[in-house]
Amino acid sequence: MWIKERSAKSTNNNPQFFLCCENGKVLLPNLPVTLQELEVLLTGKENNAVKFQDQIRMYNSVLAFTSFGAKVDESVIGGPEPYSFRIQGELYHKIRSLRLAEGQRPQFAQLYIHDTKHEHQNRHAVMPSLDPTMLDRLLTMMYNINPYVEMFKMARDMMAIEGAPMDLKLRFIAFRTKDAHRYNVPMADEVAALMVGDGSEVVDRRDVVVAQQAGSFQRIFELHVGYMALHYLLLFPYGEDGWHPNIPLNGVVADADLDENHAEESKLQRKHCNVTMAEFYGYRLQHKDTDGIPLL
Is the peptide bond before 82 cis (omega within 30 degrees of 0)? Predict the structure, then answer.
């Protein structure tokens, strides 16, 4: 923390900081311990680790399920130092259908579905400057621990069966029903589900349903619990849940648990009873010795 980030009611000699946890109101479960092999790559000083860190965005892109979207102002791209990149409007993440359109090359999530006998070669063709051995290590790691990868593998296997339904879809579940104050690495059936139909069976409109047939991009909204994990696999290799609107503040009692004598307390709590997106990332971005690899 910078000293100017202290609470206005505290002093320079005795500073207090609330941005990290809002004085204990924000209490999130620790992230899982980073797989040792990945931790060495993220923090190591050896030549292969340093080269990996230098190319981490490229490695992440070739493994990610979703792509980055924005309306880019082409008039200021590149040019002299410093490099400039300007957009109009908002950023968003998007995902394509499971199958390729005619003449289309597989990208992002489609690489987990299309021609998997040559999956490593296909990925290396997308980013030929990457070390193929390193890419193979990372891909094997994701197949072993990432629940989203497991779901795509299940979709791929089902699509390969002769006579498989053409209206097979992959549904990404928007919210969890488990306690948001306790962290468990999500299982494959908690992050996504295979379904057959036109999509009308989906109860929660915030779920993302990706069709098998080639079509337009699907947008992954920032309110989706998997928004970060679907794009930043190397930061959230276990498919860790991100922010969603239903994470309660620490110590706040749900309305359903209040009796009629606590009406005023209930009224006050409804003003701010859940963790905001800013509070969530403020907490996650702080270094904690008990947590996994800090995102910073």
Answer: yes
In order, the DSSP letters of the chain are --GGGS-TTS-SSS----TTTTTTT---PPPPPPPHHHHHHHH--SHHHHHHHHTHHHHHHHH-SSEEEEEE-GGGSB-SSSPB--EEEEEEEEE--SSPPTTPPP-GGGGGTTTGGGHHHHHHHHSTTS-HHHHHHHHHHHHHH-HHHHHHHHHHHHHHSTT--TTEEEEE-----S-TTS--PPPHHHHEEEEESSSTT-S-TTSEEEESS--SPEEE-TTSTTTTTTT-TTTSTT------TT-BPTTPPPGGG--GGGHHHHHHHHHS-B--HHHHHHHHTS--TTSSS---
What digits encode the pLDDT tens for the residues 101-152?
A: 776 777 888 888 887 777 888 888 888 899 999 999 999 999 999 999 999 8
Q: Who's near 168: CB < 8 A, 6+ residues apart?
A: 98, 155, 158, 159, 194, 195, 196, 212
Q: How far apart, in whole angstroms, are the C-alpha atoms of residue 234 and residue 57?
A: 9
Strand order in the sheet with 208-211: 192-196, 168-172, 208-211
| Domain parsing of the chain, residue ranges | 1-28+247-296, 36-243
Per residue in 214-266, pLDDT (tens digit) is: 666 778 888 888 999 999 999 999 999 888 888 889 877 654 444 455 545 44
Residue reference for tokens 């309110």: 223
- Residue 11: Cβ within 10 Å count: 9
Number of other CB atoms surrounding residue 28 within 10 Å:
19
- Phi, psi torsion values for 57, nearest 5 degrees: -65, -40
